[in-house]
Amino acid sequence: MKVAIGGQGSAFLLKEKVKEYLLEKGYEVCDMGQTEQEDSQFFFVDTVEGVAGKIKSGECERGIVMCGSGAGVSLVANKIKGIYCVPCESIFTAERIHAFNQVNMMAMGAMVVTPGKACEMAEAFLKSTCNGGALEHIKKVEEAYFK
Questions:
Q1: How far is Cα 79 from Cα 108, in angstroms, rounded to an integer?
Q2: Helix (H, G, I), strand (E, B), or coil: what is residue 27?
Q3: Rounded to two decimals, what is the model's pTM?
Q4: Is the CB of residue 84 less than 8 Å from the CB of residue 64?
Q5: Angle between helix 12-24 and 115-127 (nearest 10)
Q6: DSSP 3-state assignment of 13?
Q7: What does the pLDDT look like over 75-123, one tens digit per residue?
Q8: Candidates 30, 67, 85, 119; catalytic one
């Protein structure tokens, strides 16, 4: 599976750990995040747009975005049509967001999860398979009211 990943600022080191872990597990990784820790010109909106673009184009199946809390990147991601992002703090949630809700992007916070847990969460999210889910219902609401 090919996955897009991105993080900036406070999440740079976490993104690097998760990326390294996923590569070791055999995933193809498109790094759309900050490439140097000191890059102050990189804004978290840029990383979300980059990851979302890879998903929307079909180049990547899923994406993982990171910031300090996971909240900012998930708020931005959910403004992009066709992107469904949930911030996660547990392996349980990371696995189920795709399995039951067909989410295509997961967010996490570098100030919230440890690198080890972040790697386990990323793998749980990427390994999960869809069990039906609520996406069709979500899309009906989306078409009527949002995006």
A1: 17
A2: coil
A3: 0.89
A4: no
A5: 50
A6: helix
A7: 999 999 999 999 999 999 999 998 888 899 999 999 999 999 999 999 9
A8: 67
